[in-house]
UniProtKB/TrEMBL annotation:
This is Ribose-5-phosphate isomerase A. Homodimer. GO terms for molecular function: ribose-5-phosphate isomerase activity. Substrate binds at T27, G28, S29, T30, D82, G83, A84, D85, K95, G96, G97, G98, K122. CDD domains: RPI_A. NCBIfam families: PRK00702.1, rpiA. The gene is rpiA. Pathway: Carbohydrate degradation; pentose phosphate pathway; D-ribose 5-phosphate from D-ribulose 5-phosphate (non-oxidative stage): step 1/1. Belongs to the ribose 5-phosphate isomerase family. The keyword Isomerase applies. It comes from Devosia equisanguinis. Signal peptide: none annotated. The active site is at E104. Catalyzes the reversible conversion of ribose-5-phosphate to ribulose 5-phosphate.
Length: 232
């Protein structure tokens, strides 16, 4: 998918931003375009204050002189703009391919609205083609992994469970110091039930199912950028 189209999706989302807003800044290749474009607007006088969802995004925003804060100082945000690894017609999402899902979900939940920007390959009929990231505590990893595997079996997962980065010899570590297990489903038929079952496991910190959080999406396709609204 053309980076130019991703950038156009980001530009469309930027039209939703007004001076004085408190913004959540997403993480990933498409969100990076939004932060770049926002930096240009800030340089031209746009007055916003932002909470980044990862250290990578924070570094990018700082390099562009975008004013930053945190959710201790700002307890509520007007809008979060972020990418997605998958989205369905109801704008339910899988996120976390970049490893920032916990902070992304905290920031999205603290926002009055969430807009997703993505390319057309991320749009699916049913979530689950993309592996579901599950952020877990380092302590008790073996026990947590076994319990997650039992949940996957109960939910009809077609594939296995993999610790991110283990094939490279060094597991991936999130900004919060946790690990990520990627669960290969193929198709998630009961996302709400799966969400609850995973969060009931003590070692699970959070997962990448973002359900009923996104209200609008700008999706870049070869035919241009399409705007999708929740419940449309």
């Amino acid at each position: 998918m053309s980076e130019a189209l991703k950038r156009e999706a980001a530009a469309q989302a930027l039209t939703e931003v007004r001076s004085g807003m408190r913004l959540g800044l997403g993480t990933g290749s498409t969100a990076k375009h939004f932060v770049e474009l926002l930096g240009e607007k800030v340089a031209s006088g746009l007055d916003v204050i932002c909470v980044p969802t990862s250290e990578v995004t924070a570094a990018q925003a700082k390099s562009l002189d975008i004013p930053l804060s945190d959710l201790e100082t700002l307890d509520r945000l007007d809008l979060t703009v972020d990418g997605a690894d998958e989205l369905d017609a109801a704008l339910n999402l899988i996120k976390g391919g970049g490893g920032a899902l916990l902070r992304e979900k905290i920031v999205a939940a603290a926002s009055d609205a969430m807009i997703v920007i993505a390319d057309g390959t991320k749009l699916v009929e049913t979530l689950g083609r993309f592996p579901l990231p599950i952020e877990v505590n380092r302590f008790g990893l073996g026990a947590t992994r076994r319990t997650i595997a039992e949940v996957l079996l109960a939910h009809g997962a077609e594939g296995g469970l993999k610790l991110r980065g283990e094939d490279k010899g060094t597991p991936f570590v999130t900004d919060g110091g946790h690990l990520i297990l990627d669960a290969f489903f193929g198709r998630i038929s009961r996302p709400e039930a799966l969400s609850m079952d995973l969060l009931n496991i003590p070692g699970v910190v959070q997962h990448g199912l973002f359900l009923n959080m996104c209200s609008k999406a700008y999706v870049a396709t070869p035919d241009g950028v399409k705007r999708l609204l929740k419940n449309n």
